Structures are given as structure tokens and as C-alpha cells.
């Protein structure tokens, strides 16, 4: 039995897509760490420490299928929880595999001590070059570090027809907030050219944030990962903040720019070869440049997607 560890069950589209990408390609029996009340027999409630420990003990393998959970910017205790699972599992001589991970930010000195627990894993597969550089600076074992790309790029999505839609994904953070006024002006210009303006939320908090903005959205969408992918893939242009909004753009060959709210987003843009189009807060002029260069961006994505998908499938080679 595999015990799957991640931020699953909290309504985050990206994490739900990670879980499904893993389950679609791996047929072993699983238990899944769940971040809400258990809704299936194979779910293990995160708040039940006894159940978590019991399933670590019973598992043949501990697998982290992907995500950006090893960081202390949003919560030191979250980092402590996940590295604690690694430490306890290693004491029990369990095989531990960390796939499709982002690493960092690691901002507290004490966090660096707890991150050393990762030296006990069989594989630390990192999905962007910034994470790999951080792992080396933290002096994690070089033999466990592997380069991959995001595991969701292995999902065989059905691609819808492109429509004249400008998609926007923002989350409630400083970088997104600074971009709002420029996006108001830019979206009004696109509306005058016949574009529909679509907000795409990747969790409930995103949805509330998008609804609070002065951008005149024609629609705001929040749904499961398949419908979320479709809502991104239909767009002719997109502004991505969440990591997986950018990943969905790449998978669907959708021209996009990214808002650099977290190193994992910049790292992904570097991997795609579009770091130039990753902004702390895009200006109207930068958005206009994006509009004029969207064919170039689409071509760059199409040149890189094959290699990125190969790197994504490497995650499964390690287990």
C-alpha cells in the first residue's frame, strides 16, 4: 500500500490535478492524506494524528506525488508537519519518494534544520531549476536530487477549440493586487476588440478575490480540475498567478504571462523558456507587448512541450 502525502482535499485545483495525475498512472492500492473530513474509505484525515501515524506504519511506500508543500513562507508548522512525516517514516525504514516537488521558499534558519530530513528519501524529484539550486545550497544529498517537470503534464486532457477569451487567474497576494489596475485598463481595451473577459479561480479564496475586483469580468469560473483546464485552454490569452494555471497554459498551448508571486512560478517559467514574461506586476506596456507577441509565446511553448512532458513522465520512472 502507498500512503500519498500532499495538500489534497482542500478544494485546490492544482493539488487535485496532481493527485489525479498520479492515480491515473499508478495502480497500487493507496491511502491518501486528506485535508478535510474523510469522504472515502481510502482517505486519512490530516487532523487525526493517530490515523496518520498508523498509515505510515502500515504503508509499503510513502509517496509525495507533487506540489509546493516544503516551504515556510505561508506556514512554518506546515513544513514541520511534512518533514516530520519524512523523519518518522525514515525511522520506520519506509521507502519515501518525493515526486514533482517545488522546494522553498525556506526563510527561517530553523526551517533549514528540519529540511535536512529530506536526506532520508529515496528520490527528491524537483520540478523547476530554482528548486534544484535551493536543494544544492541547503546541501541536500546530490544523489537523490532529480530534475523533472510538473506531474500534471502527463494528463491526457481533451483540448477544446480556442475562443476570443482573455483569461485571468489572480490570488489574494501583494503581486496580484498591484497588477489589478493595469489589468482593468488592458481588459477594457480587449473588450473593445471583442474579447470576453474570464476570471479563473483555482480555489475558493481565488474566487472571492476575483469577485471583489474592479475588473469587469464577463464570467468567473471555479470548478474541478478537468473543467478548470478547459476554461484555461479555451482562452486566446491568459494571465497566470497560480502555478497550475501556468502549467495548464503550457499543456494547452495557450499564450500567457505569469505573475511572479512565488519562486516556483518563476522557476517554471524558466523551465518553459518564458522567464522574460514573468512579472512581479505587469505594466500596461508589458501586457501590450504580450498581446503583440502572443504568437511567439505560443511557438515557444510548442517547442518546449514535448521535452517538458518527457520530464513529467520521469516522475514515474523513480517508483
TrEMBL record:
<feature type="domain" description="Polysaccharide pyruvyl transferase">
    <location>
        <begin position="12"/>
        <end position="263"/>
    </location>
</feature>
<dbReference type="InterPro" id="IPR007345">
    <property type="entry name" value="Polysacch_pyruvyl_Trfase"/>
</dbReference>
<dbReference type="GO" id="GO:0016740">
    <property type="term" value="F:transferase activity"/>
</dbReference>
<dbReference type="Pfam" id="PF04230">
    <property type="entry name" value="PS_pyruv_trans"/>
</dbReference>
<protein>
    <submittedName>
        <fullName>Polysaccharide pyruvyl transferase CsaB</fullName>
    </submittedName>
</protein>
<keyword id="KW-0808">Transferase</keyword>
Amino acid at each position: 500500500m502507498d500512503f500519498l502525502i500532499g495538500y489534497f482535499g482542500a478544494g485546490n485545483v492544482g493539488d487535485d490535478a496532481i493527485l489525479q495525475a498520479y492515480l491515473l498512472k499508478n495502480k497500487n492500492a493507496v491511502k491518501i492524506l486528506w485535508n478535510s473530513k474523510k469522504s472515502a474509505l481510502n482517505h486519512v484525515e490530516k487532523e487525526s494524528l493517530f490515523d496518520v501515524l498508523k498509515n505510515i506504519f502500515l504503508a509499503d511506500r510513502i509517496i509525495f506525488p507533487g506540489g509546493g508543500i516544503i516551504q515556510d513562507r505561508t506556514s512554518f508548522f506546515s513544513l514541520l508537519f511534512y518533514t516530520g512525516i519524512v523523519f518518522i517514516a525514515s525511522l520506520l525504514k519506509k521507502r519515501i519518494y518525493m515526486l514533482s516537488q517545488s522546494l522553498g521558499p525556506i526563510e527561517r534558519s530553523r526551517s533549514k534544520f528540519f529540511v535536512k530530513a529530506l536526506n532520508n528519501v529515496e528520490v527528491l524529484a524537483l520540478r523547476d531549476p530554482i528548486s534544484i539550486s535551493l536543494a544544492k545550497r541547503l546541501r541536500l544529498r546530490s544523489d537523490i536530487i532529480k530534475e523533472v517537470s510538473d506531474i500534471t503534464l502527463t494528463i491526457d486532457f481533451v483540448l477544446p477549440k480556442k475562443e476570443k477569451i482573455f483569461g485571468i487567474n489572480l490570488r489574494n497576494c501583494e503581486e496580484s493586487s498591484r497588477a489589478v489596475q493595469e489589468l482593468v485598463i488592458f481588459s477594457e481595451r480587449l473588450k473593445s476588440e471583442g474579447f470576453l473577459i474570464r476570471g479563473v479561480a483555482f480555489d475558493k479564496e481565488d474566487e472571492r478575490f476575483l469577485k471583489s475586483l474592479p475588473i469587469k469580468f464577463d464570467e468567473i469560473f471555479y470548478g474541478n480540475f478537468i473543467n478548470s483546464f478547459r476554461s484555461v485552454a479555451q482562452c486566446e490569452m491568459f494571465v497566470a498567478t497560480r502555478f497550475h494555471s501556468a502549467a495548464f497554459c503550457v499543456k494547452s498551448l495557450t499564450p500567457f504571462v505569469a505573475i511572479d508571486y512565488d519562486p516556483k512560478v518563476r522557476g517554471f517559467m524558466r523551465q518553459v523558456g518564458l522567464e522574460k514574461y514573468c512579472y512581479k506586476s505587469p505594466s500596461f506596456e508589458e501586457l501590450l507587448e504580450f498581446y503583440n507577441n502572443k504568437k511567439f509565446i505560443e511557438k515557444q511553448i510548442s517547442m518546449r512541450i514535448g521535452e517538458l512532458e518527457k520530464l513529467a513522465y520521469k516522475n514515474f520512472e523513480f517508483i
